[in-house]
Amino acid sequence: MFETAELGRTIGKAEFQQREPELRTKLLAAQEELKGAKFPVIIVIGGVDGAGKGETVNILHEWMDPRYLEAHAFGPLTDEESERPEFWRFWRLLPPKGRIGIFFGSWYTRPIVERVYGLSKGSALKAALVRINNFERELADDGALVLKFWLHLSKEGQKKRLKKLEKNPRTRWRVTDSDWKHFKLYDRFRKVSEKALRETSTGHAPWIVIEGGDTNYRHLTAGTELLTRLTKRLAQEKEKAARPKPPKPEIVKGDQPTILDSLDLTKTLEKKAFTRRLEDLQGRLNMLYRQAVVRKVGSILVFEGPDAAGKGSTIRRITAALDARGYQVIPVAAPTQEERGQHYLWRFWRHLPRAGRVTVYDRSWYGRVLVERVEGFCSEEDWQRAYGEINDFEEQLCEHGILVLKFWIQVSPDEQLRRFKEREQISFKRYKITEEDYRNREKWPGYEVAANEMIGRTSSEFAPWTLVEGDNKYYARLKVMQTFCDRLAKAVK
Amino acid sequence: MFETAELGRTIGKAEFQQREPELRTKLLAAQEELKGAKFPVIIVIGGVDGAGKGETVNILHEWMDPRYLEAHAFGPLTDEESERPEFWRFWRLLPPKGRIGIFFGSWYTRPIVERVYGLSKGSALKAALVRINNFERELADDGALVLKFWLHLSKEGQKKRLKKLEKNPRTRWRVTDSDWKHFKLYDRFRKVSEKALRETSTGHAPWIVIEGGDTNYRHLTAGTELLTRLTKRLAQEKEKAARPKPPKPEIVKGDQPTILDSLDLTKTLEKKAFTRRLEDLQGRLNMLYRQAVVRKVGSILVFEGPDAAGKGSTIRRITAALDARGYQVIPVAAPTQEERGQHYLWRFWRHLPRAGRVTVYDRSWYGRVLVERVEGFCSEEDWQRAYGEINDFEEQLCEHGILVLKFWIQVSPDEQLRRFKEREQISFKRYKITEEDYRNREKWPGYEVAANEMIGRTSSEFAPWTLVEGDNKYYARLKVMQTFCDRLAKAVK
Description:
2 copies of one chain form a homodimer. Chain A is α/β, with parallel strands linked by helices. Chain A contains 20 helices and 10 strands.
């Protein structure tokens, strides 16, 4: 893979000076067009020490408008980062649509370095590369232009470069002990990174290997590659925007029952029995919760279901048993402007809780395959893809040691109507009911189909759905509490 | 201060049931009106253990629309938090305009607890209370309604409450060892918090002491206080909005010279001498920077000055000497929607760098007293107040051990014009010049007056301004580099 980047290619000063102004002008024009486009550019910069990674970041800043260009470098994990899944630190720095983000050091650094130093096995590297491919595919599917530059030097070339810098007293400071330490591992580093590049060089996120020995060649090549790919992409976007949108497909509920139809909504529980058992369960939950804090087992609870299914009141019974410092309830409303500029999962990554906490989502990322699907807020492609993206997201949470519980609380149309009417009678509940809620009832069959498919496609062994019969609120609340206690008990055992 | 909250006040069940619905209805209506208003509500909840702090948070969630209400509790500092000034963790959680933020545990916790446990002196408590008053005043000045509830129990009352909870097997879990440990310190806790409350009970952020013994009384009192103050404030806002806005005062530059006039812009340096000294300085800067990393001394560099003064090119000469993992350049453009919903300093707090890093602001929070003042984007009150707010902000940075360097690069109108024309000749620099830049030249005298006042009022001993003669770019770049090196050398010595 690197042979073609060891040819000793150079570009003379005269040629550079002749080509640079045109390249800069075109890059700026492309960047200007990007500002109004609906996708971000993500540039990963990796490679051999001394091959000019830092200089490449610098020249891109000099050539383009730095106000719409952000570079990020990564050091050791902070504790806020280590308390969350590995990719959290990358998600939170993704550029919004219309901007360029440069990742100098990236999701490739840890897997490659650990393997080079023999701290991880080949199978761990392999698993990491699969995760990386998923991540980059999700970004690309969402529209991001993902480019990855690898700056290469031959072993001899790296040695020469370090020696040259050391010889000049004015540049000696650029060479550190760790540079020479890394140099000793050159062969191993080359082998591991060759494997990593090969397995992650995809059509949607290709690696572009650039010979790093000659500054002029390196700069012009990186700039030209960026320009060519960005320009092509901008043209594609324009063409795509001109195409007519496919009509929103109608969701039809056929004769076959959905999984929701199979729920026995007549299950009931008396208020008295409820009150007694609730106090017991709250006591048990509190004890388990405190054990979970000690063992740093965090929980994420997701609540979905029709309006007036009792999500909010159930959540309050749970949080009443917890310490206020240990939980957070996140009501999911419309995204903010910053959030709309990002991948739809970004805002959920962004607010991911720290280790050992309980985070309750009152509605969630499942909005993508429920309301967004039913109302046609996203394309069919978008929500079809979302099942896999959500499973991948939840898998990362679970691998990190977080318990993920998902509750679908179901009510019958009749019971929902009764609750609507009841709410209208109580002055301080009236705000919860709008015309919209009545209109939504007409879309009930569509939501049932969407929920049925969602439950089937995202009920994984690590994050199963719990379906809750919600017509009797006492029964529903206890079932949720009981389920949470049982899962927690297993996890802290 | 607490005597009036030891009267044993109660509200019977019948009265509670009669008054609650009306209170809830009115609270919801007020919250609905708040959504469209231009200020946030910040509620601090403090008090004695067992006095019902958690229950107050819960009842407010139950009574109001939880989608526009956020509660925050605080545990020990994370390392991302401890690497930044103490108030960073509070700033980043402030509610935006139109919303309610509840701080359960707050900026009062650390100062009070440390003093109770004898870990800090009375003078440290005093200093902390001064900082708190500044903070709350800044929030209130920006429009926030700041309410602070203190839930009180007498010593006997606290003992009774804890015993009662312990007696019932179903509620025993609510009482922890640390509750009894705290109880032993009751008298001391009472004394220290009484002092804290007295010194921070201000007109713009009053403490409301509530007797915590009876749940009904406590809930109704907290709810009613919130309702009364919020309603009053909403009415004031309406009245204020109806008042005619004062005309924007003209900024006149008189005959007297400004501090900028005193700069000798004829200072020059040859390119050859520049190149030689630049390499020396970059080597020195890198060495100092690496020492600073080890000693965790971070630096914040602020660049201000007219268009085309050479801010960007100077910044690039500095960052070229640093490790890409160790610096961040933040070009300050228009705020995002989320940022516009907050205090103008919020977005600078938000992006505050971690310890030991170099952060360069290309334009900064000084926009408030420069462009916002000159263009009339904020009221005279707003920018007048900003000097003090900025000094307070920078003082917190410096107290935290961060070096704050502020550079004003000055160019003469003639030199600026020459650079504009030059930029227009170079294809890839043309994007930097717009009609607007020429129009801005007419406002030059206004900017000079604003800059002169800014420099005078914000050049503190901990964060002085460095004025840079910028007509010769080589001279300017070296002066900045030299200043940074000298300050850094002193700090790491």
